[in-house]
Design brief:
Layout (H helix, E strand, L loop, with lengths): L36 E2 L14 H20 L6 E5 L7 E5 L6 H9 L8 H16 L3 E9 L9 E6 L3 E6 L8 E8 L9 H12 L5 E4 L2 E4 L9 H12 L3 E8 L5 E8 L11 E5 L2 E6 L12 E6 L11 H22 L1 H18 L4 H10 L1 E2 L6 E2 H5 L5 E4 L2 H13 L5 E2 L5 H5 L5 E3 L2 H7 L4
Parallel strand pairs: 2-8, 12-14, 17-18, 17-19
Antiparallel strand pairs: 1-6, 2-3, 3-7, 4-5, 4-7, 5-6, 8-9, 10-11, 11-14, 12-13, 15-16
Helix pairs in contact: 1-3, 6-7, 6-8, 7-8
Length: about 450
């Protein structure tokens, strides 16, 4: 059983009560100045807690570093090497991204004013967040970095302690290539979060779709074809292995929003009322969210959608979630309609498994309601009929959601060829109420049908 996340020590970087100002480092070229400074109040979103936070944030910072280097060298491929903590050793995450200059490393320790902004500042912010997350598992965090922008740049060393002290010096051991390396020296209580098995699991959870190579203890776990570029059979297998569901089918979704890509897996089992699929949201192949998402319409709870937002995380603004969600909903509906036309048997299986869920959610979307009306059959005394087919019947179509009334009229109406809808099935009555051509059975109707007691 994993230990809970210990609370941050007093004066640590994530302690909101610590209001001490940072002592600015002296600007200039690299030096061996070892004067300690207080860790600054780093601006960052809430980190949350749990055994995956430090790995997620370390990989996110590596992604930003690599993307920044690709901006100046489009031919750069990128690679991240993760070494788990074994024995008394540290957990190490090394990227071959843009790296930092000597002055930029001091900015990490000195918290520049708000006028320091743009891609460089955003990249630094991500590494600052990674450092904050690292203190959830370690009392000592070490960063070594070498800039890819400065020929012959020195390797700088940043060491932070959980009591809020940092030192910035030239590294005794230089990095052989540009990039950034972060070392965590985990506490005894959190060392289980940094073992080979746990580290591999954590990396796979958040980074298996990154477009560049990620190694864990020498084994490559990412960098191949991403989920959105794979064939249908491979996508089905990915959902089985990584998400733990057996899909009936996987539907590619074209959103026409920037570089947003999505696929929807329809499970081969019936979902229960209140079921909420754990949709996944990636940015550039990096998992940033799992669970209910504004990027996916609520009515799509019968399936699991995986979305990748391929925007430039350094410079591009975030997409409008509502717009993306609307486009994904339309794309999903279009795929369902196409499935019904091209593969009616498979669509029939989908309706058999998820018809109740579609009926339940039909009121949330006019487009979904139109699909449900034309494709999802409801039970009647004359056999299953779609709602659209029922509206073609001459006259008003009666329905009842009272089980006793249904029992009273079912056999007699069927024998006489009279059409009555069984609205005791969940969600049917809610749809029929207020629709033209449908009316609830009344006491007098039972007499007419010959079913009055």
């Amino acid at each position: 059983m994993r230990s809970p996340v210990p609370g941050p020590p007093t004066g640590s970087p994530s302690d909101p009560s610590d209001r001490r100002a940072a002592t600015p480092a002296t600007p200039g070229a690299a030096s061996n100045d070892t004067a300690p400074h207080r860790v600054p109040r780093l601006t960052a979103p809430p980190l949350g807690s749990g055994p995956r936070v430090h790995v997620r944030e370390l990989l996110a910072s590596a992604l930003v570093g690599i993307e920044a280097r690709r901006r100046v060298d489009p031919r750069h491929v990128g690679r991240v090497r993760v070494t788990s903590a074994t024995g008394g050793g540290p957990l190490v995450v090394r990227d071959d991204g843009i790296g930092f200059t000597a002055q930029e490393v001091r900015w990490i320790a000195a918290t520049p004013d708000q006028h320091h902004h743009g891609p460089v500042r955003e990249g630094m912010r991500r590494y600052e967040v990674a450092i904050l997350a690292s203190f959830q598992v370690a009392d000592v965090v070490e960063l070594r970095t070498r800039s890819a922008l400065v020929p012959g740049a020195p390797t700088m060393r940043w060491v932070g302690l959980a009591d809020g002290t940092v030192r910035v010096t030239l590294a005794d051991e230089a990095l052989d290539t540009p990039g950034t390396e972060i070392r965590l020296h985990p506490r005894a209580a959190t060392r289980s979060w940094c073992t080979p098995e746990t580290t591999l699991e954590q990396v796979l959870d958040v980074a298996d779709q990154l477009p560049f190579a990620v190694e864990v203890d020498g084994v490559e776990v990412s960098g191949g074809t991403t989920l959105w570029d794979r064939g249908a059979d491979e996508q089905v297998e990915w959902f089985r292995q990584r998400v733990g569901i057996d899909p009936l089918l996987v539907l590619p979704l074209e959103t026409s929003v920037g570089r947003v890509r999505a696929v929807a897996a329809v499970p081969a089992f019936r979902t229960t009322p209140g079921h909420r699929s754990a949709h996944r949201h990636y940015v550039g192949g990096m998992l940033v969210g799992e669970g209910r998402s504004d990027l996916v319409p609520g009515w799509a709870s019968f399936c699991q959608v995986v979305v990748d937002d391929g925007r430039d995380i350094l410079t591009d603004p975030a997409h409008d979630d509502a717009e993306v969600g609307e486009r994904i909903g339309r794309a999903l509906l279009a795929r369902l309609i196409l499935l019904g036309a091209e593969h009616p048997d498979l669509f029939g299986e989908l309706v058999t498994l998820h018809g109740d869920a579609l009926l339940r959610q039909a009121g949330e979307s006019r487009d979904l309601l139109d699909l449900v009306r034309s494709t999802v059959p409801v039970p009647t005394t004359l056999g299953p009929r779609t709602i659209d087919a029922l509206t073609d019947v001459v006259g008003v179509v009666p329905f009842t959601d009272d089980p006793r009334t249904w029992e009273a009229v079912r056999d007699k109406a069927a024998a006489d060829g009279v059409l009555v809808v069984d609205a005791t099935v969940p969600h049917v009555a809610a749809l029929l109420d207020g629709m033209d051509r449908f009316a609830r059975l009344r006491g007098g109707d039972l007499v007419v049908l010959g079913a009055a007691s």
